[in-house]
Amino acid sequence: MSSLSLKDLPKVALDLKSELEGFNHSCMKKAATAEKNVLPSAEDVRQERQHSELIHDVETFKPDQLKHADTKEKIILPNAKDVAAEKTQQTLMSGIEKFDPSSLKHTETQEKNLLPDKDGTVSYFVTIIYHFCLWQSLRKIANYV
């Protein structure tokens, strides 16, 4: 690293230089400087140590120290309910697939209008209201007695 000569340093304006030299430091308030060095807690140290040990163990792992293990495969057979349900589902699906729509009989749709005609409309509803009122009055009499 080479040192800079005086002429290479940046120049300060004369008015700013005179203000800096004439500044009165006694008008400033005193402030205590407190250095805060936050040290890690015991838990942080423990976690960092555990992590570094784990990394070290992974880096120094030797796969030739492992023992060979045989895998035991267990075949779990379905119970009787599952077998019956699957068989029922298969028979339904095969019945649907083999269905022949030509075996259906042809039908004619008949539309029936159950509403009363224009002439009987008023008398029909009047009769219904009359019977309802009669039924209500008979019910009140039966409850009164």
UniProtKB/TrEMBL annotation:
InterPro entries tied to this protein: Beta-thymosin, Beta-thymosin_sf
Matches recorded under SMART domains: THY
Gene3D superfamilies: Single helix bin
Keywords: Cytoplasm, Cytoskeleton
One BP term from GO: actin filament organization
Transmembrane segments: none
Subcellular location: Cytoplasm, Cytoskeleton
Molecular function in Gene Ontology: actin monomer binding
Main localization (coarse): cytoplasm
GO annotations of cellular component type: cytoskeleton; cytosol
The organism's place on the tree of life at top rank: Eukaryota
Xref: PANTHER family: CIBOULOT, ISOFORM A, TETRA THYMOSIN
Family: Belongs to the thymosin beta family.
Record-given protein name: Thymosin beta
Species this chain originates from: Eufriesea mexicana
